[in-house]
Amino acid sequence: MNTPANLKYAASHEWARTEADGTVTIGITDHAQEALGDIVFLELPAVGRVVKAGEECAVVESVKAASDIYSPMSGEVVDINQAAIDAPESVNADAYATWLFRIKPANPAELATELGGLLDAAAYAATL
Amino acid sequence: MPLRTPLYDSHLAANAKMVDFSGWEMPIHYGSQIEEHHAVRRDAGMFDVSHMCALDLAGPDARGFLRHLLANDVAKLSTPGKALYSCMLDQDAGVIDDLIVYFFTAERYRIVVNAGTAAKDIAWMRGQLKGFKAELIVRRRDNDDAVAIIAAQGPNAQERRLTGTDAVAMIAVQGPRARERFWAAFPDSRAATEPLGIFQAAEWRDWMIARTGYTGEDGFEITIPADAAAQVWHKLLAAGVKPCGLGARDTLRLEAGMNLYGQDMDEDITPYEAGLKWTVDLKDAARDFIGKSALEGANARRVDVQFAGLLLLDRGVLRAHQKVITPQGEGEITSGTFSPSLNQSIALARLPAGVAVGSEVEVEIRDKRLKARVVKPVFVRNGKPCFSEG
Question: What is the DSSP string of B215-265?
């Protein structure tokens, strides 16, 4: 299973990447897309929505089932991936290239704490 | 310990993702459920359906017993090999199971029932058999001892008929090119099976080859000795038939508007509430089948629901148990999925009587209400969209 070393992971199978501008990009892991099977629909949060870490804020639907996506970070949703909404199967093709939404953390202290609470690649891989 | 079919190793060799299905370890897909779906609509795919249970009914009262046991009437079967779809009802007209019965003679029938209900079905049938001169023989379907059984077979394998107690496997080969590819793999079977009409089976050597299926496409469902299963599977693979899992089987049957037991109907539902009135045969007024009085006359259960199809007009995916809001009241989705052929979500639903085909209703999905159109519950057959709004 593919778990890139430069990302952080939630036990609920989301990945997070901190960008140069301080925002955090969120997607689902390769393991998650594999377990879900053919993905056919994404429901992403509204831009501007403020979420708490661990809050349900998106839904990924495969032919088989609907799966809730939890934001690993607290903050404001500043962008969603329209290309992924238009072609949900791209999550199956490359779960790390196909990000879902971006969060602008509420404050730097919280960001550090929440990032610290996430798993690194090896620790996430060990949960699978 | 989950049950395994004789094709278990063949599934693993084809990279199947295995899941539990009614106690059986079965392939859900072999990579992409959608590609498998398209293979069946456009060319040919095969499903291991060995978890379903084949039963042989033999004896002088076999016909009379089935006329009592089933809501559809086996009396209409007179051509050897002809098949009939029927519900088996309890006294309250609840559906115990849906099944296919194949006629060979008035004293010999083959019945195929669902995997998850087989034990319950067999117990019910045995209970009803009292007073009838007929024997129910359960065909073994697990792969335990399959090798030992081969050793016990005589030299006349080609003369053998599937009426003994040998374990069997079942494979459904489905799609517009299914028969052609099947004949390429087994050319000797062609003469016996090319004349078969839809819903008709032939016994060929020790196989039963039926022109039936659960996908809305042409093809065969074959019942073969368990020990031959892996070799048959590999010959079909070599002939270009794509292995397909239970995932594709579900999207295909739903597009074809075919009910799934346990989801679209069960013991709390009559055939009339599940779109299966066409399978209840009341023509012979003298025939007294189990559940008949609950469907008919003064004591009839009131039927104020209809079974319909839904096409989701907004983006999303319809799922079982979602609430449907109509001007006539609330209904419920019984099966829903994303249709790979139509590229939109479809569902089967029980709606209040009076909701017109062609009208627009709303479905509650999470915190939203999405628009759906009511259609007749058939979406795709023979590779073509065929839903009707009028």
Answer: SSS-EEEEEEEGGGHHHHHHHHHHTTPEE--HHHHHHHHHHTT---BTTTB
Domain assignment of residue A105, given as a range? 8-117
CB-based contact A40 B316, cutoff 8 Å: no
Domains belonging to chain B, first-starting first, are 8-52+142-254 (3.30.1360.120), 54-138 (3.30.70.1400)
- Residues of A near B (CB-CB distance < 8 A)? 37-38, 40-41, 43, 59, 61, 63-66
- Choosing among A64, A67, A68, A91, which should be mutated to test the B contact, i.e. which has the most B CBs within 10 A? A64
What sign does the CA torsion over A72, A73, A77, A82 have?
Answer: negative
Query: How many structural domains does chain A have?
Result: 1
In chain B, the residue whose alpha carbon lies closest to the alpha carbon of A66 is B317
Place of tokens 């498998």: B36
Is residue A122 situated within a structural domain?
no
Question: What's the whole-number mean pLDDT along residues B368-383?
Answer: 95
Digit-coded pLDDT (tens) for B82-93:
999 999 999 999
DSSP B70: B
pLDDT digits (tens, 9 = 90+) for A4-43: 999 999 999 999 999 999 999 999 999 999 999 999 999 9
